[in-house]
Predict the structure.
Amino acid sequence: MPHFLGLHALQALPLIALVLARRRVSDVVRVRLTLIAAVSYFALYGILVWQALRGQSMLAPDPLTVTLFGVLVFGTAAAAAAAVLRPRAARTAALA
């Protein structure tokens, strides 16, 4: 599974960048979100490789692996929210 995921990063990351290019967001936010997607994709790949090296089934992860997936999801959501909200906070501070 890590091999499959790693190869499809070559397709998924440009697709993410293309979808973001069609949205009405600034270039700074677009670059931040694309970098966050790349780092998150790499982290997911790392978790899956680690899981495979431990001989663990993809369909029956242990509690530690589930916790890592949860941290990855929460961290990605928090980073994406910060990337989107940071420019708004800067603009609001500049107007005050």
Notes: The two ends are 51 Å apart (CA to CA). Residues 5 and 11 are 10 Å apart (CA to CA). Residues 2-95 form one domain. The chain has a mean pLDDT of 85.
